[in-house]
Amino acid sequence: MAYTDNSHLVKELKKFIPAPRLRTSLIDRVAFANDAGFYKLTPLAVVMPESVDEVKKLFEVSHRLQVPITFRTGGTSLSGQSITDGILVELSQYWRKILPENDGKQVRVQPGAIGAMVNAYLKKHHTKMGPDPSSIASAMMGGILSNNSSGMCCGVANNSYHTLKYISFLLPTGDFYSTENEADYARFQNSDLGTGIIKLREKILSNDALTDKIRKKYLTKNTVGYSLNAFLDFVHPLDIFAHLLIGAEGTLAFISEAVLNTVPDYPYKSTALLYFNSISDACHAIVPLRDSGAEAIELMDRASLRSVENIKGMPPELKSLPSEAAALLIEYQDDTKEKISQKVEAAQKLIIDTLKTINTEIEFTEDAKKQALLWKVRKGMFPSVGAVRAQGTTVILEDVAFPVAQMAAAITDLQTLFTKYHYDNAIIFGHAKDGNIHFVVTQTFNEAKEISRYEAFMNDVVDLVVKKYDGALKAEHGTGRNMAPFVETEWGGDAYQIMHELKQLTDPLSLLNPGVIINEDKLAHLKNLKKLPVVEQEIDKCIECGACEPKCPSRDLTLSPRRRIVVRREMATLKAEGNKKDFFTINNDFQYQGLETCAVDGMCATDCPVDINTGDLVKRLRKENHSEFQNKVAKMLAKNFGATYGTVKLALAGGETMNKLFGKGFMYKSTAAVKKIVPSFPLWSKEIISSSTKLTNTKSGSERKVVYFSSCICKAMGGSKDGQKNINEVFYSLCAKANVEIVVPENSNAMCCGQPFSSKGFAEAFEEINSKSLKALWEASNHGAIPVVMDLSSCTQTLINSLKSKPEYQALKIYDSIDFLKKLILPHAKIGSKKSKIALHPVCSLSKMGLNDAFTQVASALSTEVFIPKNAGCCGMAGDRGFLFPELTASATQWESKEIAEQKFEGYYCSSKTCEMALSTSTGQNYLSLLHLADEVLE
Predict the structure, then answer these.
(1) Above pLDDT 70, what percent of the chain?
(2) Which residues 6+ apart lie within 8 Å of 392 measured at CB?
(3) Distance, CA of 351 to CA of 357 (rounded, Å)
(4) Domains along the chain?
(5) What are the pLDDT digits (tens) for 644-657?
(6) 70 to 57, 82, 494, 512, 524: CA distances (angstroms)
(7) HEC readout, 298-316
(8) pLDDT of the residue at 681
(9) What's the CA gap between 507 and 514, in Å, rounded?
(10) Of 506, 455, 512, nearest in space to 482 by CA
(11) What are the Cα distances from residue 468, in Å, to 281, 413, 632?
């Protein structure tokens, strides 16, 4: 595989972009080559500008060197519109502003703001964005605006186009405009572009047939080509162009900021899943349900229902549905219980009297958990196909719109095409209220005959959608490269000519995201296709959607889970091609970027639609990197863990002594100096405070007993600042207040959950110490009769997970400190003077154990106000990563720290000592275990 030389470009970019924000190594260019679609182009450079001025200079370089330039944010686009073989401008890091305005009636955003985060900021105002794409948890505003994203409830009226209030943008010429600035209107009108826009509008208005076509096509969802409705909806050329930018997929200008009008976020919702004997019956129910006020009407064919029926928690009746059945998921929303009740009552009458459902005893639910289960049915379809597809195949999610009245016939025709082209696992679902249908097929692009099959299939799909049903080839996913060859087919020559002239007016050299929307190559959709080689079982299911990325602590520093997988696939391809030079270049860089800076916290799996835990891959690769000698040493340390622990304690005490003798910053400065020479050397943390409490049994005569398994870290480094109790002393104090007796396992200093060995890939050492510790806990707990309590959440999770493979210890009850407080302490202790406002950091392990709600509940019982930063996520400490690679924790916590700095709190709390250290370093505040809060407040 050949990579274009980028040396001249890099030289120019280095003049104004500093090294940390200019990524030109082969591994970085490969990592950013893919988005969620099925096309691939490798950029010459990845640039992360932080100002409009820097973007202006990027435009200048692009023009001077004739190098294409493409803007990208979340990379969740499905049609190939966020990739390039030129300059890739990555906006996810430095363009994250979110500012609700006018009591939440509007929201100001930059392109790197995640959609779900925008709604989180709006929540207190009881409003939300109009666009609600299913990828909202990872999609960013740049893409949401540039694709004119919609979703399940927003329909046409509340999409990005119709909710836009103001927009600021930079043209390729370097001219900057904002519709918020009155003076810019005259300046734009007098420009060549403004004059050209006026002429294009006049041309459209003089063509009655074209005018009628535009008005008709935008009555339903349609994102094919440019938003020509802007020429009819607005008069001033700046307003016209501002709305042309919505859905332009970054081909006309750079959007730096936008203000959107928001919509109500209704507090009351009622949801039901309706089953029908046929797709025809389901389609005939759409209009009556829409007219009854349903906010969401989601259609699912039998194949799509079958794809999720075996997933845990799915409604059991799915398996017994007839072979031709279909379903509609409907939801009503409103601002009062009374209004919801009225809507549901009317809907139930409609269903019974009019609709041909399989079961007329339809259950509507207002229960949030039950609603989440019903939506899981709908949202699980795309990933379910991705999870079971054949290795090496790509998941293609297409997106079309038909007139609602013709949906039943159109879907039947689509299913006929699936059969004709042997897409046997294809499924159909979609936003029925808007006639918007998604269909999913799996396809390999590794063979010429498979590409030919896809070509013939797509030609038939185009004929079906456009010629037979006069529908839209793209309803909400954008034109991209995928449908660019068919824009003229759908719109006709006159409209396409307008679009072509618009592109020429703005970007005459076609350097701004070329090949997207306007593409004269009628086979462009069959070129630069992404191949997915079979690599490793942990990641072969990955569909590269990017849903994992917001959860990853290393995403802004090195690689995200998606990019780790992309790189592994590229390495496999290079190896197969015999390209040793590039393989070894990437492999060398992957050690740091892919392995050493991965926190292996598994949080990526929590948002992954196909449940991939990239941490499992990293652990295995770390294991494979170990020599036999290293494995033997690790196992020896595990076998003799008492001595290992003693050595660590001695080293910590020695470090503190050195600080006392030579100044409190001595150890930090000394280890930092060594680290410059030996990068893998651990850095002394200023938060290290050793602990020396001896753990002993207590005798209270109480029936309530616990086995206290204090983590190695808490026993060694559980001390606190300013003369506060250490974590072990706090635990004993709480048990005394609630009259709980403590049992300490024999030789507890020789015990460990095994996490330090597991995270580094020392599987045998982990098994050695983990089994030894479980056996000791089994005996100390009287074979599970007494609950075991741990004081560090990540260790709790490790221990609980290890029980899955050890049935002999299944009776063990393992409590985290949060369970301990909620179940054994709070009910039996008196609450004294509560703290006022406190800040919480929910650690990864709490999320994975399902204890976040309990964490908040306990904190709320002990304080008057609880604040959890919206940017709270994995701190990247991961046991020792923060000592070895402090840049990882600094990057992972930067946004959370900014939130914390904006307010004052009476206390800062967590549930894992190492995470507390990371947050304390990052924020400059003293983070403590929630156990400390309880001990302060309880009497």
Answers:
(1) 97
(2) 444, 446, 531, 532, 533, 534, 540
(3) 7
(4) 98-262 (3.30.465.10), 626-939 (no CATH)
(5) 877 777 776 777 67
(6) 14, 7, 28, 6, 17
(7) EEEEHHHHHHHCCCCCCCH
(8) 65
(9) 10
(10) 455
(11) 22, 10, 69
